[in-house]
Design goal:
The chain is α/β, with parallel strands linked by helices. The chain is 40% helix and 19% strand.
């Protein structure tokens, strides 16, 4: 969490995104968990801090809660009585935090703007549940969507996958796992400031001290908690930047310019293009990690959502 910019530094963040980051950090300071607090307490604090940013936004024609093999799902439909394409959305939070509640507005925004259904998944969190538990749950959700599509009024032939940060990681890893098992792939990937490899890059040094949302030490702790053995960090299903990306679905990458993961995202976009995957990578100047959650106050986040929705509609030929 941000420690505050030195007054002598140049702040590269968009002013509205800076307001968002500062508000998040003030809320964490207000609701701070005591040192050594349990994961349950840390998650409760994170939910409380994010609550104001999930409120408001589009009203859905239908919102339905469902369960699959212990994982909670939430379906948002922007219109009723119509067979809709669907996106499985996988929330971020370093595989340790957040939920379909913290990301509820973001999912509703995609549903309303793109004219699609969105299903969010509350996958099992680390460190209690190590790799590959969350990954297997996301893959199972894709199978469940295909099996239940007719009953839910969804188009099984137009299924996307998307996520932010750790959720973007899981989105790509799910596609890799589907390809490995010769199962159907989603037709597109929406990847927001993804965590695709654990190695530090120059953007870590530039943005990782805590002034731009996600800290370097924080990200290292997330990676360490996700795996049972550090040797797993080289597994392409853990670090998709190491994977053969041939045959993956078309991708939209929203890259936050002021993010420790910026370099990793640029490299991942380059590798997708080298593998022949149709790729649109957009760098949002002045954006920090998690900037899409600032949609209620930041035109930059609104623009990114509009551009992504237009790409979804174009990809789906809606």
């Amino acid at each position: 969490m941000s420690k505050g910019l030195n007054a002598m530094q140049d702040d590269m963040a968009d002013p509205d995104i800076r307001r968002f980051v500062d508000a998040i950090n003030a809320a964490y300071a207000e609701h701070a968990a005591t040192p050594g607090a349990s994961m349950a307490t840390r998650r409760e604090v994170a939910e409380r801090v994010r609550r104001p940013w999930r409120e408001g936004g589009p009203i859905m024609a239908e919102t339905r809660e469902m369960d699959i093999e212990g994982a909670r799902l939430r379906l948002h439909r922007p219109v009723a009585d119509e067979k809709l394409p669907v996106m499985l959305y996988i929330h971020g939070g370093g595989w340790m935090l957040f939920s379909i509640d913290t990301h509820d507005r973001l999912m509703r925004e995609y549903a309303a703007r793109a004219g699609i259904a969105v299903i969010g998944i509350d996958y099992s969190l680390s460190p209690e549940n190590k790799f590959p538990v969350a990954l297997e749950e996301c893959a199972a959700a894709l199978g469940w969507i295909a099996a239940q599509a007719d009953a839910l009024g969804l188009d099984a032939d137009r299924v996307l996958i998307g996520g932010d940060s750790a959720g973007a990681n899981l989105s790509v890893a799910t596609c890799l796992l589907q390809r490995q098992r010769r199962h159907p792939l989603p037709i597109a990937m929406l990847l927001n400031y993804g965590a695709f490899a654990p190695e530090h890059t120059p953007s870590y040094a530039r943005f990782g001290a805590g002034d731009y949302s996600l800290e370097a030490d924080e990200m290292d702790a997330f990676w360490a908690a996700y795996v049972a053995d550090p040797a797993q960090l080289v597994d392409p299903l853990v670090a998709p930047l190491r994977a053969d990306l041939t045959g993956l679905p078309p991708a939209f990458l929203a890259i936050a310019d002021c993010d420790i993961l910026a370099d990793c995202n640029h490299e991942f976009a380059r590798k997708l293009e080298e593998a022949g995957v149709p790729t649109r990578a957009v760098t949002y100047q002045g954006a920090t990690h998690s900037f899409l959650e600032a949609m209620s106050i930041a035109p930059l986040a609104q623009r990114a959502l509009d551009e992504q929705a237009a790409w979804i509609r174009d990809t789906l030929k809606i």
